[in-house]
User: Fold these one by one.
Assistant:
Number 1:
Amino acid sequence: MTGWRALDAELARWAEAGWRCPLWLRDDDAVAASPELERLLALCASAGIPLGLAAIPADATPSLAEPLSAHRDVAILVHGWAHSNHAAPGEKKAEFGAGRPAEARRADAARGLDRLRGLFGDRVLPLFVPPWNRLGRDMPALLVEAGYGAVSGFGPRPAVEAPPGLRWLNTHIDLIDWHGGRSAVDSEALLGRLCRALAERREAPADDPPGAEPIGLLTHHRVHDAAIWRLLEALLDRLAGHPAAAWPAPGSLIGLAPATGHAP
Ligand SMILES: [Zn+2]
């Protein structure tokens, strides 16, 4: 339990300073209502935290709106278009990588936002989540043209500046060990990453910690096994109600009005 004790100690340092670290939860690949989605929504509701739910526009069905109707703090994000891999053989999977013509990528990003808005109205934020968290370097500018105000990948923000009008809201802590059995990541390794992310923000000399870049947790409800659910529950148990943790809605994190929870 070393990692959990280290997390408690790090959070105590924030609390002593009177600071709260912003955190958010992004869950990817939503397409329809399911028992797994219900479980995720219930977990977020009991923890009292909002959720950014990245839906695949081409596959999304109206049934997704039903479980969300009881959960006002859930915003729908745009997860690419069809989660199709367009990368060349041997390259890492990507739907919006630089290998595709820019116009095709811009058009797919625009119709993803249009389709989800048509299905779910103002529950949808103009926040683009590229499948596999991969984007061509020219994609941020294309996203602005396609109507987006924010983009969310994984890990540190890229060195390229976002164009005016576009904000980054990345995730940093993936609960799934994609390359080692697709169950939960080793909790000690995850807690080490989480503690480092907290400490970096607390110690950042030029940054006021309360205004630090939010730390994003990343889940995929459709493929969670028992171990992944347990890890998520344990994390939220520790983090959701802690006085050193803040859980602003994704819309407010990117300077947009939060989803109001009213479907058309
Ligand atoms: Zn995905």
Number 2:
Amino acid sequence: MPKKRRSGGRTGSKGGRDGSVHCAKCGRLVPRGKAKRVTKFVSLVDGTIGKELRDSGAIVPRRQESSWYCISCAIHTHKVHIRSSDDRHKRDKIR
Ligand SMILES: [Zn+2]
């Protein structure tokens, strides 16, 4: 039977159980391999003050924040997009 996705919609290795994570939006418990991780950089300083500091040549610290989303929430919030059959079978990174 043809597969819709090469990986079965999962990331990581083929076999065995993977851990679970909670969706950041709805709180649903999803397998780690099926959840989407979104990483963003958050500045520790407020917007306008940060811009002034950056213009004056200072290095403004940024913090890395990652959160996990279930597939429903990832699609609803436009973190990932529905792709055509051809796009799904491309071997580059999933976005
Ligand atoms: Zn969710």
